[in-house]
Amino acid sequence: MHRVLYAVLVGLVGAGIVHVVILLLLPTYSQRDAWSRLTEMADMYGVAPIDVMPGERPLLRTADPFFHSVACRFDLADGIAHVGADGKVPFWSVSVYDRTGQNVYSFNDRTQTGPSLDFAVMTSAQIVEVRKELPQSLEQSVFVEANIGEGIVVVRAFIPDSTYERPVEDFLKTVDCGVD
Amino acid sequence: MLRTILLVLVAITTAIGVGAGSVWVALESQEGVGAVTVGGWTVFPNIGTPDADPYSKARVAREGVLALGRAEGLTFIAQRDSSGARLRRDCSYLVEGTAPLARFWTIYVADTHLVVLDTTRRRPPAVHSIGLLRAADNSFAITISARPAPGNWLSLQGDGDFLIALTLYDTPVASNSGVDAVDLPQVLRGACDA
Questions:
Q1: Cβ atoms of residues B106 and B74 within 8 Å
Q2: Are A30 and A101 in contact (CB under 8 A)?
Q3: Cβ contact A101–B15 (<8 Å)
């Protein structure tokens, strides 16, 4: 009897170790993270709508029914990721995520002067390069410094009621994701 | 010899079973490590950011979700009413009070995995602060029930538990550390279907 209790005790100590190991390895080995799910929806630099259908498991943690969203994937090893969009909507916001789905940078329409969206994601090294000689295409852009490799950009726009459906759709259709 | 093998097996099964099970339980719950509870509402202020604790990081990876950034907004989740009972779809609820400072906010109903509930009616399963009836003192009351109600009504259908998600957009609450000092509306339970 004592030996069984001893075995269970050893097992419980082992359980603590297993708990910590699973917890720390989960982010690295998850097969169905946001990146993998986006891979099925669009190619690199392809803009995919990630709207919320009622009853479906959403890609966004806050699957707000009043929002329409699009996402694209990029790789800073290819060059600077340049994202733009044009249009007038009541509210838009942008998040930049790293490969594991962690939010590394976010901003909204009040961060940018002017109604249109124009920003470039780059690493510290790329920023130094760009500042030496600013390319014309990046003159108006907001610079987002993110020392990541692959990443995800999500653009969300608010639809207060159905009359805003068209302008928001048009705005999200203009979202363009490319390498500079 | 056989007894030794048996004992080792007991130890290993306990280790793997309890270890994996406890991770599952910790990540399945909407409360838990990394959560801040404010007046019945739960919020993960750091979820999805590099500052997050290991449990929040594992949660994001396991669910494959992208969380709102600090400049975007902050989501508060209620899974219990003011008396501490779980929210049930066959009851009616009143969400009453004021919301913290934000450019606007939305409230929607979702199942326990945060999937938006299908109302099967031609109404959005949500309300937002810009299209809301308010009292003279700027407070509001939203009825969440299966049966239509006067005033602000959020339609609910089906049975089982559900969650209420309140999202503040472009809010100073997200960027300051004042998450636990905000005034959130109360969730009061009304009548239930027997």
A1: no
A2: no
A3: no
β partners of residue A117: A85
Those residues of chain A that have pLDDT short of 50 are none
Nearest CB among B60, B67, B170 relative to A110 is that of B170
Q: What angle do CA A52, A54, A57 make, to 5 degrees?
A: 65
Task: Quick: pLDDT tens for A123-140.
Answer: 999 999 888 888 888 888
Size of interface A-B (CB pairs under 8 A): 210
Bridge partners of residue B74, in order along the sequence = B168
ipTM over 0.95: no
| Pairing verdict, β B186-192 and A176-179 | unpaired
- Contact residues, chain B, for A65 at CB < 8 Å: 106, 108, 116, 124-126
CA distance B129 to chain A (A): 9
- Hey, of A3, A12, A26, A148, which one would you mutate to test binding to chain B, going by the most B CBs within 10 A of its CB? A26
Residue boundaries of the structural domains of chain B: 1-30, 35-192
Q: Looking up tokens 């308010």, which residue turns up?
A: B134
Which is the CATH superfamily of the domain at B35-192?
Domain of unknown function DUF1214, C-terminal domain (2.60.120.600)
pTM of structure: 0.86
CA atoms within 13 A on the CB side of B134: 12
Q: Tell me the residue length of chain A.
A: 180
Three-state SS for chain B is CHHHHHHHHHHHHHHHHHHHHHHHHHHHCCCCCCCEEECCEEECCCCCCCCCCHHHHHHHHHHCCECCCCCCEEEEEECECCCCCECECCEEEEEEECCCCCCEEEEEEECCCCCECCCCCCCCCEEECCCCCCCCCCCEEEEEECCCCCCEEEECCCCCECEEEEEEECCHHHHCCHHHHCCCCEEEEEEECC
pLDDT of residue A55: 58
